[in-house]
């Protein structure tokens, strides 16, 4: 702690040291390598001066107020991750948010977007690619949303970077775009062809061996047809 040096006596009075006491009169060194809440309180420092064989004292009161440190915020860009790849559909609209957290009381910086090494315009709704900024007062989270009115092939080979030029914790996240994987129709086409071929083969085989197939099933299932003329006959041995 620092003992005030106001209203010091003339130079003829030679400094003779400083002593510290707590409000309760306990001796203190006045030095803390680290402080805790329990160290808060009123401290009294005494500056001593020697003059003509006498010691003269000047007393000052110093208040030490130790406050609990607020939890450290997770400052920086939380989304997207650096190197993240986003699937998009060429010719369609796409939006990619960049979320960041910074201490607005100490650093008014806000995130922005780069296309390659060029700045992306903010809130230019006439541009094909632009970004818009929003701030959540409750969570103190800032969001810079990169908007593509229409994704083009050239965007797939461009790196887009969300950047936060913060004096406290500068950060950036570079992303790339890729086409949405289209479902493969090869398997469906092969299955359709196989089904058609099987149907054709079945018709051909049945047409050629119709009689044989009919007799086979009749013998296998025991299906024999019989007719009756409705008359009764006597049999003699």
CATH architecture of the domain at 76-179: Sandwich
Bin the helical content. 10-25%
**What's the shape?**
elongated
Largest sheet: 5 strands, mixed
What is the H level of CATH, i.e. the homologous superfamily of the domain at 76-179? Immunoglobulins
Any idea of the CATH class of the domain at 76-179?
Mainly Beta
Structural class: alpha+beta
Number of helices: 2
Mean pLDDT: 83
What is the element string, with H for helices and E for strands? EEEEEEEEEEEEEHH
Distance between the first and last residues' Cα: 141 Å
Walk me through what this model shows:
With 237 residues, the chain is α+β, with helices and mostly antiparallel strands. It has helices at residues 186-208, 210-221, and strands at 14-22, 27-28, 41-51, 54-64, 76-79, 85-88, 94-101, 112-115, 118-119, 129-136, 141-148, 160-164, 171-179. 9% of the residues are buried. Among the domains are: 14-64, Immunoglobulin-like (Sandwich), CATH 2.60.40.10; 76-179, Sandwich (Immunoglobulin-like). The strands form 3 sheets. A 5-stranded mixed sheet has the order 6-13-12-8-9, with no helix packed on it. A 4-stranded antiparallel sheet has the order 2-1-3-4, with no helix packed on it. A 4-stranded antiparallel sheet has the order 5-7-11-10, with no helix packed on it. The model has no long low-confidence stretch (mean pLDDT 83). Residues 1-61, 80-178 form the Ig-like domain.
Question: In terms of topology, how is this protein built?
Answer:
Blueprint: E1 14-22, E2 27-28, E3 41-51, E4 54-64, E5 76-79, E6 85-88, E7 94-101, E8 112-115, E9 118-119, E10 129-136, E11 141-148, E12 160-164, E13 171-179, H1 186-208, H2 210-221
Parallel strand pairs: 6-13
Antiparallel strand pairs: 1-2, 1-3, 3-4, 5-7, 7-11, 8-9, 8-12, 10-11, 12-13
């Amino acid at each position: 702690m620092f003992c005030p040096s106001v209203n010091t006596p003339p130079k003829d009075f030679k400094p003779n040291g400083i002593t510290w006491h707590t409000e309760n009169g306990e001796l203190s060194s006045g030095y803390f390598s680290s402080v805790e809440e329990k160290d808060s309180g009123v401290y009294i420092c005494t500056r001593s001066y020697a003059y003509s064989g006498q010691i003269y004292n000047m007393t000052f009161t110093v208040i030490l107020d130790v406050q609990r440190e607020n939890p450290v915020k997770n400052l920086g860009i939380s989304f997207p991750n650096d190197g993240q790849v986003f699937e998009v559909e060429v010719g369609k609209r796409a939006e990619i948010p960049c979320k960041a957290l910074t201490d607005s009381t100490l650093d008014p910086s806000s995130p922005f977007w780069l296309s390659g090494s060029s700045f992306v315009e903010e809130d230019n709704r006439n541009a094909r690619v632009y970004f818009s900024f929003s701030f959540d007062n409750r969570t103190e989270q800032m969001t810079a949303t990169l908007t593509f009115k229409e994704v083009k092939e050239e965007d797939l080979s461009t790196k887009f970077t969300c950047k936060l030029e913060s004096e406290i914790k500068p950060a950036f996240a570079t992303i790339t775009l890729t086409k949405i994987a289209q479902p493969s129709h090869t398997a469906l086409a092969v299955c359709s062809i196989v089904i058609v071929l099987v149907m054709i083969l079945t018709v051909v085989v049945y047409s050629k061996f119709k009689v044989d197939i009919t007799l086979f099933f009749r013998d296998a299932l025991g299906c024999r047809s019989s007719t009756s003329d409705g008359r009764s006959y006597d049999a003699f041995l």
